[in-house]
């Protein structure tokens, strides 16, 4: 069975959006920020485990595709979460505890073309 190519319709992608200000302005260690992204991605998969797209994504273990984007600050991340909720896009906003700080969010795996327009203003995380 051939893996779906990057340009193929229906290519499943899991988008993760991380606050870039955590590293660049608040001086969080890069490892701590990567950990936040891992938490959000794992939580989104867990919450939507029975979803058909999630199951297909997991069945293609060696060809999973994630895209990590940067949000400039907490307001942008929260605004994106609101936009995704209004659009009916399943995601998990990760809130670090006990500090109660929203750090990132992850979408459940979905066809790239269905969610990319909602994420257009966010650039790759640097």
Automatic annotation (TrEMBL):
The keyword Disulfide bond does not apply. Keywords: Hydrolase. It catalyses: an N-acyl-L-alpha-aminoacyl-tRNA + H2O = an N-acyl-L-amino acid + a tRNA + H(+). The keyword Membrane does not apply. GO terms for molecular function: peptidyl-tRNA hydrolase activity. It comes from Collichthys lucidus. It is an enzyme of class 3 (hydrolase). Its EC number is 3.1.1.29. This is peptidyl-tRNA hydrolase. InterPro entries: Pep_tRNA_hydro_II_dom_sf (IPR023476), PTH2 (IPR002833), PTRHD1 (IPR042237).
């Amino acid at each position: 069975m051939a893996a779906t190519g990057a340009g193929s319709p229906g290519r499943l992608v899991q988008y993760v959006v991380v606050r870039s200000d955590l590293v660049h302005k608040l001086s969080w260690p890069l490892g701590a920020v990567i950990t936040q992204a891992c938490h959000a991605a794992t939580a989104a998969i867990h919450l939507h485990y029975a979803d058909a797209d999630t199951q297909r994504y997991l069945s293609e273990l060696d060809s999973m595709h994630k895209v990590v984007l940067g949000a400039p600050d907490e307001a942008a991340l929260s605004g994106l979460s609101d936009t995704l909720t209004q659009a009916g896009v399943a995601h998990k906003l990760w809130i670090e505890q006990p500090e109660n700080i929203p750090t990132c969010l992850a979408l459940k795996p979905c066809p790239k073309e269905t969610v990319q327009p909602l994420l257009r203003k966010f650039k790759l995380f640097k």
